[in-house]
Amino acid sequence: xxxxxxCAAFPPNLPGGAQTSSFxxxxxxxxxxxxxxxxxxxxxxxxxxxxxxPVRRIASPNIYWDxxxxxxxxKKPVWHLLENGNPFALSAMRRQIAAVKPDMLMTVxxxxxxxxSWAAAKxxxxxxxxxxxxxxxxxxxxxxxxNSENCTRQCGSCKASSLGKKFFTRYVDGVVGESQDVxxxxxxxxxxxxxxMKRIPAALSRLHATAPRRFPTDRPLRVGFLGLYSHFKGxxxxxxxxxxxxxxxxxxxxxAGEGAERDNYGEEVRCRFPAERTKFYGWVKADEYLSQxxxxxxxxxxxxxxxxxxxxxxxxxxxxxxxxIGGVAENIIDGVNGxxxxxxDARSIQEAILRIAGSPSTYERLSSGALTAARGYLPATLxxxxxxxxxxxxxxxxxxxxxxxKVIAV
Length: 410
Prior knowledge:
Blueprint: E1 2-7, H1 17-31, E2 35-42, E3 46-50, E4 53-59, H2 75-82, H3 87-100, E5 104-108, H4 116-123, E6 128-132, E7 145-146, E8 149-150, H5 156-161, H6 163-168, E9 174-177, H7 180-188, E10 196-199, E11 221-226, H8 235-244, E12 251-256, H9 265-272, E13 278-282, H10 286-290, E14 295-298, H11 308-315, E15 320-323, H12 326-331, E16 338-341, H13 346-357, H14 360-374, H15 379-409
Parallel strand pairs: 1-2, 1-5, 2-4, 5-6, 6-9, 9-10, 11-12, 11-14, 12-13, 14-15, 15-16
Antiparallel strand pairs: 3-4, 7-8
Helix pairs in contact: 1-15, 3-4, 8-9, 8-13, 11-14
């Protein structure tokens, strides 16, 4: 199968878990014998190669592509309007399809690449698969939060501003969600009416630990956070938990990531942590950073679509403390490979950290559970599952096309 994989984020564009998951997915499918070509929006058009994967960079069909940077206020509504069906994206993707001649189009998230890409594939008679990394199709800010509160359903303003995005989902034949939660949210709002859906989590490249970790006895327990500093990610509540730590707690905090350029939230986050027991890293290589910490905290107050850093921690035999909502909660089995805590609850985060810090046997049991969990995310298992799903989507598309031709003939 020749697959054109259109990605909202792909290395080296845009830091964070989305580009890593896109890259891992491409490598995993390539390992299954699928001929993968990636198309990705960047600063300028050109041909590239990332570790053996051909990448076709295209200039943004929208008015900007890097949504982490500060933009003039007038540009934001224009960008969102065009994301509902961009004729420039339709033309750009038709050119890419003509050049690559794929057997299938698969979109990995959809920002900038645009929902019109699905229409371009349908015009070319191609089956379409989509991988959902977030709630962008249903919510203008992708996180389904309003006034810092989680939305249980799509609000009226998001319905109105997503009409085009919802319309174009009818052209998708199959949808993969990295969590069941993200699939359920789309189904509840009537998205992807003609698609078969399946949960397939993101993949790990390999295991970095060969055995469970031992509890550190010669230094403080290192508690980490890895990701974008944002209100959605809940990192401020980890900072509050750190400030609540008793003076004699043998715990320190290692915080990796940065805030978006478009706001000053990163500085606010830094002020929430106690300086005497906190180290800030900025953006890091995840594997190098994870090798230095003992526990990862994933304190998101919103419903994560997956939470890639949680399984990356498992690959290092690191237990994870996560909030109990969204996709990330599906990765953590409470008391087995980490702990669940309620969202926006600094006291519960503090108590979970102290529970681990005060019990070497608990830490080592959770570390063993984390390493066991990591094995379920390896390409040997997930690659075959994903390939089988794409073959199902292709066969389903072919059957529907044959049926349509019979109807026309009658």
